[in-house]
Amino acid sequence: MNEFARSDILAGLDAERRATGALSAGGDAVVERSENGSDCRIVIANCPPEEIDGLICRERDSAAAGGYTLEWKHYGHDAPEDLPERLVAAGFVPADEEEVLVLALDEASLAAFDDAGRHEIKIVRDEGSLADYAEISREIGRRNAEEERLALALQVQAGTDEMSIHIAYADGEPVACGRVYFRDGGTYAELSGGRTKTAHRRQGHFTSLVASRLRESRDRGRTHAFVDALPTSAPILRKLGFQFVTRTRPFVFVSDSHGIDG
Fold first, then answer.
1. Long-range pairs, 146-155, Cβ under 8 A, ≥24
2. Residue 29 near residue 23, CB atoms below 8 Å
């Protein structure tokens, strides 16, 4: 990807970030809040770099007073350049860094993911199937599986068309899953939450789930798909045509009334 194309993609990504959540009380950040109010994520800052320290302190202090967990989603091209150091100094803890990868959704790029229906994949349309999603999460050791199930159930109950959950089955057993998000009116899709039960890894379920979500994204008129990829999945996705755009890392502040979840 040349620098011009990369710059254009990043501009589109930032536009999506600004349209994803709601403005903070002061209008200087775009935030997303969980349905139950236990978590808040800063998607992007709207203030000048010289005002960023004030924003960090205000949002951190609000989280401490409100007793919720605050995540600041930092991208490699965000300003100022030393934002990660400022967040750490303010008490935020960095999580694992991920690569932001992008794929143009055209016939040529999707051909690399053609698995000819090798695996059974269902798109979740009801709350009952979320038990299968939680089962996969518990098997791989996620401690917040039940809390995540409840949060996803609220989104399903709301009837929103901005999220789809795909689950892969083997002989009737749920073995892998993943989500895909579609901002209303946007042109991009975001892949998230990919996971596979330990005993079913290296059997193609991960790739089939990516393919399933990409096909839905294309069918819904999206032009590109993004994914934040850990070192375990990034090489697979890059081999299949995804291209590196930037890096991202969440910085998390946990109030005294909450424990840290892995």
1. 147/38, 150/36, 151/34, 151/35, 151/36, 153/127, 154/35, 154/36, 155/35
2. yes
How buried is residue 94: exposed, middle or buried, by Cβ count under 10 Å (0-12/13-18/19+)?
middle
- The strand ranges marked E within 141-242 are 163-170, 173-182, 188-196, 224-229
| pLDDT at res. 116 | 57
pLDDT grade for 259, boundaries at 50, 70 and 90: very low
Q: Is the pLDDT of residue 141 over 80?
A: yes
Q: What does the alpha-carbon distance between residue 103 and residue 125 come to, in Å, rounded to a whole number?
A: 26
The dihedrals phi and psi of 218, each to the nearest 5 degrees, come to -65, -45
Q: Give the whole-angstrom CA distance, residue 260 versus residue 214.
A: 33
Model confidence band, residue 159 (pLDDT cutoffs 50, 70, 90)? confident
* 153 HSE (CA, 13 A, CB side): 15
Residue 149 is which amino acid?
R
CA distance 177 to 218: 19
Residue reference for tokens 């083997």: 170
Q: What are phi and psi of 94, to 5 degrees?
A: -75, 140
Q: How far apart are the first and last CA of the chain?
A: 34
Helices (H) and strands (E) in the chain, counts: 8, 12
Tokens, residue 14: 């930032």
